[in-house]
Specification:
By secondary structure, the protein is of the alpha+beta class. It is built from three helices and five strands; from the N terminus they run αββββαβα. The strands form two sheets. A three-stranded mixed beta sheet has the order 3-4-5. A hairpin with a 4-residue loop joins β1 (22-23) and β2.
Length: 107
C-alpha cells in the first residue's frame, strides 16, 4: 500500500533530485544544508521551491538558483520552475540534516 499521494511522491522525488545541487562554498547539497524550506509540485506544470540562503549577501545565491533550475528542468522538461527566496525563518546551523552535520564535521 502506498502511503503517499502521487503529488507527495513527486515532491519527495524532487527533494531527492535537489540533493544533486551543491552549495559551491561549502560543497554540500542544498537539502542537507537545510536551505530548502518547501517544495510544491503542481501536475499542471509548475514546481515551486521556497529557498533560503545561509546569508542575505551570499555570493553564490545566483549560482545555486541557476543550478536548481537546471537540475529540475532536466527531470521535468516543460515545467515552470518558480523559486521563492525567503528569509524567515533565518537559516542557522540547526537546519543542517544529520548527514549535513557529519559532512561538515559538526557534532
Amino acid at each position: 500500500m502506498n502511503l503517499y499521494t502521487d503529488k507527495e511522491n513527486r515532491e519527495i522525488e524532487i527533494i531527492q533530485f535537489l540533493k544533486e545541487v551543491i552549495d559551491p562554498e561549502l560543497e554540500i547539497n542544498i537539502i542537507d544544508m537545510g536551505l530548502v524550506y518547501k517544495v510544491n509540485y503542481d501536475e499542471k506544470g509548475q514546481i515551486t521551491i521556497d529557498l533560503t540562503l545561509s546569508t542575505k549577501n551570499c555570493p553564490m545565491g545566483d549560482v545555486i538558483i541557476r543550478n536548481i533550475e537546471t537540475c529540475l528542468n532536466s527531470y521535468f522538461p516543460g515545467f515552470q520552475i518558480k523559486i521563492n527566496l525567503v528569509w524567515e525563518p533565518k537559516w542557522s546551523r540547526d537546519f543542517l540534516t544529520p548527514a549535513g552535520k557529519k559532512e561538515l564535521g559538526i557534532k
